[in-house]
Specification:
Blueprint lengths: L8 E3 L15 E3 L1 E4 L5 E3 L3 E2 L2 E9 L2 E9 L2 E5 L33 E4 L2 E4 L8 E3 L5 E13 L5 H4 L2 E3 L13 E3 L4 E4 L2 E4 L9 E3 L8 E9 L4 E4 L2 E4 L13 H8 L12 E2 L7 H7 L1 H4 L1
Parallel strand pairs: 16-21
Antiparallel strand pairs: 1-4, 2-3, 5-6, 6-7, 7-8, 9-10, 11-12, 12-18, 13-14, 13-17, 15-16, 19-20
């Protein structure tokens, strides 16, 4: 059975007759009822026989995915009751793909703490970590996200590797790998890693090295902070990305429930190479890579 990963909320349109879905009505799956009939459901919401896992669009139809076990999914189509899993494409289309938010550290990344560096995946709620200005912050939550390399745009899924010293000043002190949307603080600018690729010392990691799936981690502190990853300044979690995209969102919800929006650090942000200041592009060799 194929493995799928989706956004936290998926909206889909239904038309025609269906054994599973009805226009402007509650979702039903043989038995039981879910939500209020607005055609928007959260991943993980219970349904008869499993939990809602998302949708995929193919050949003009919306296929609904229900997770029925740890490694088992059932595919439903509101338009074609005869459709089977074999008819599904390997590509998940825009609007239901897993890669809309992907901003994390790879396992083995060393995070500075008052007691020395520790691997990011070993951190726990309440652990102390050190900010770039020497203050101590505490881990509020460690988000964990699984990437499926079989689905989604390959370039978006490729992590970015910073060779030791590639950011200047000897930083990072060892090769550092993060996801392309994770921001590093470089000369006062929060730069997405993907915006800093120069093809030599800052490069994309081929998915062949990553296997069919890999796990990444993001650190949330009480406020948006800059911490040190392999010695290099990098941002902590900011909630312009939904926590629901993480595998262990339920842990956060159990600990904190609904929380106010976080305030982002007052720093400029470069999400693409053209937004990186010209002087920094020249210094890092980004212009030569273009």
């Amino acid at each position: 059975m194929a493995t799928f990963s989706f956004l936290s909320t998926v909206t889909y349109t239904r038309s025609g007759n269906s054994t599973n879905f009805f226009d402007n009505a509650n979702f039903t799956n043989g038995a039981g009822t879910l939500d209020s009939g607005d055609a928007t459901f959260d991943v993980g919401d219970p349904v008869a026989g499993g939990t809602f896992a998302g949708t995929v669009d193919f050949a003009g139809s919306t296929f609904v995915v229900i997770q029925t076990g740890a490694d088992d999914w059932t595919i439903y189509s509101p338009l074609d009751a005869a459709a089977t899993e074999a008819a599904l494409p390997d590509k998940i289309v825009e609007g239901s793909q897993q890669t809309a938010s992907f901003s994390c550290f790879l396992p083995g990344t060393l995070i500075a703490t008052p007691h020395g560096e520790v691997a990011v995946e070993t951190l726990s709620v309440g652990d102390e970590i050190t900010t770039d200005c020497g203050r101590v912050a505490r881990v509020k939550w460690l988000g964990r996200q699984t990437a499926m390399t079989r689905f989604g745009p390959a370039e978006r899924l490729m992590p970015v590797r910073f060779a030791a010293g590639s950011l200047g000043g000897g930083l990072p002190h060892a090769d550092l790998t993060v996801t392309a949307d994770h921001a590093m603080l470089v000369e006062g600018v929060l730069c997405n890693a993907g915006a800093l690729i120069n093809g030599t010392t800052i490069t994309r990691v081929p998915l062949a090295e990553m296997g069919e799936r890999f796990t990444v981690y993001h650190i949330e502190t009480e406020a948006h902070e800059i911490i040190l990853a392999n010695g290099a300044p990098a941002e902590t979690f900011i909630d312009n990305v939904s926590r629901r995209v993480f595998d262990n969102f339920a842990e956060f919800e159990a600990l904190y429930g609904e929380v106010p929006e976080m305030e982002e650090l007052p720093l400029p942000r470069a999400m693409s190479a053209r937004q990186v200041p010209a002087g920094l592009r020249r210094k890092l060799g980004i212009d030569r890579a273009a």
